[in-house]
Amino acid sequence: MTARFFVILIAAGAMALMICGCDLITGGSEPPGPIPTAIPGMPGQPVAIPVPGQPVAIPVPGQPVAIPVPGQPVAIPVPGQPVAIPVPGQPVAVPPPGQLVPIPVPGQPVAAPVPGQPVAPPVPGQPVAPPVATPPAPVVPTGDLLTDRMNEAKAANAVELTATSMLEKVELKKGKTQSYEVQLPGPPYCHSYLAVGDDNVKEIKIDIESPAGVKETTSEKDDNAEDNLAIIANHCPTMAGLYKLNTKLVKGKGEIAVQVFSK
Asked: Could you tell me where the DSSP H helices lie in 38-185?
């Protein structure tokens, strides 16, 4: 009887232990909590290293920006593309090589550039294909007096050269001058400058000033005849820079057109 009572007592105790979840071996310890994880942005934690060629997130105003890593390539400005000026967000176009930029003269009208005119200049450092001897193409009349005269002057004086500026027109009186800025590459490129006038223009003079303001070359005057053509041929700058082309009406009064040709 006593043994049976003892067995029942042990069974009741085991059942009580199972119900309350106690552990006789560990002394009733509770199960372990969650393992702590790293908090993003904490000092000492590893950060992702940028992989070359992968896109980088655009900085958000007010958030810290990563410091450039020394030795990584930096974009180089390309001539002719807009560059930032001191006022943020105000781009300004850099004149491409060979492109005429009129310098305003008070009281003188200046024709606006005509879109679609050739402006592609030779690029310094790139190989130039050897010239191929081909017969000059016939001059096709356009119906515009100064354009036709410029085409005729090019066919006679700059047949192997390529136009690197637009045709610029200006109305001048006797003794007046119109100046143009032109960005020119250095060696081995050379340039010719042509100026033509309408029937009321009797004599034109053009000259080239270096970036330092020194006159480098001037068109020759023909004392035996009056004409409406001025030429500076084979001008080869010794250095790249912003040159000035001055166009002066010596005799007469009327419209003048100028253009730059290069090789």
From this structure: 145-157
Token digits of residue 257:
């057109």
SS3 label, residue 4: helix
Tell whether 223 is covered by a domain: yes
- What is d(CA 257, CA 171) in angstroms, rounded to the nearest whole number? 9
**How many structural domains is the chain composed of?**
1
92-95 own/partner pairs: CB under 8 Å, 24+ apart: 94/183, 95/181, 95/182, 95/183, 95/242
Contact 149, 231 (CB under 8 A): no
- Answer yes or no: is 204 within a domain: yes
247 is written with which tokens?
A: 């166009």
**Model pLDDT for residues 214-255, shown as the tens digit of each residue:** 999 999 876 555 689 999 999 999 999 999 999 999 999 999
CA distance 123 to 195: 25
Of 152, 124, 123, residue with least CA distance to 136: 152
User: What CATH number has the domain bearing residue 198?
Assistant: 2.60.120.380
* Lookup result for tokens 């410091």: 67
> Span 103-113, mean pLDDT?
57
Q: For residues 195 and 250, what is the distance between their CA atoms, to the nearest angstrom?
A: 13
| Nearest in space to 208 (alpha carbons), one of 188, 190, 226 | 190
The Cα–Cα gap between 104 and 190 comes to 26
Q: Which range marks the domain in which residue 168 is found? A: 141-262
The token pair at 38 is 């790293």
Q: How many residues does the chain have?
A: 263
Whether the pTM exceeds 0.70: the reply is: no
| 102 located within any domain | no
In-domain check, residue 174:
yes
